[in-house]
Write a structure and sequence with these properties.
The chain is an alpha+beta fold. Helix content is 30%, strand content 39%.
């Protein structure tokens, strides 16, 4: 696989970003019927996330094609810690299971060396997602939110020692 590149999303590209998000999350929405799913978020919510101070969207680019996106944000300072969040991360269905998500996460780790803690959440019932995050060094925090009888969201964290 050629190198993954992350390109910052401009505000003019939010509609494209939103369309990619819908395509990427729709299979999960159809499976779990989560009414908070990114698949059914209005474009205004995505735009608000993109405009929020301290948050930044990046297109994930492979071989010149935009194949997904990752949002990094909400820098928090807690004593000597800088806490960053990944939310959301998505890959278009036709590009999933090719190591792209892993490469994108490794790239953001390089781009944000000041981070001492990374946090995210994912679906417990999606073992491939859990495996990806664990492969990237995340550990389960024990936080769990039952969304419905089919779906539970679990928290993950990756702490770096300096």
């Amino acid at each position: 696989m050629r190198e993954i590149i992350l390109e910052e999303v401009s505000l003019e590209e939010i509609d494209l970003l939103h369309n990619m998000q819908v395509q990427s999350f729709m299979p999960l929405y159809e499976k779990y019927h989560d009414e908070e799913s990114p698949a059914i978020e209005p474009v205004e919510k995505v735009r608000g996330r993109a405009e929020f101070p301290g948050r930044k969207y990046y297109f994930i680019v492979k071989d010149g094609e935009r194949v997904g996106a990752i949002n990094i944000g909400n820098k928090q300072r807690d004593n000597d810690n800088t806490i960053l969040y990944i939310s959301p991360l998505f890959i278009l269905p036709e590009y999933q299971n090719q190591g792209i998500g892993y490469a994108a996460i490794r790239k953001v780790f390089e781009m944000y060396p000041e981070a001492t803690t990374w946090r995210l959440a994912t679906i417990l019932q999606e073992p491939a997602n859990c495996h990806l995050y664990e492969k990237c060094g995340f550990q389960r925090t024990g936080e769990e939110t039952v969304i419905n009888e089919k779906m539970t969201i679990i928290g993950y964290e990756r702490k770096l020692t300096r």
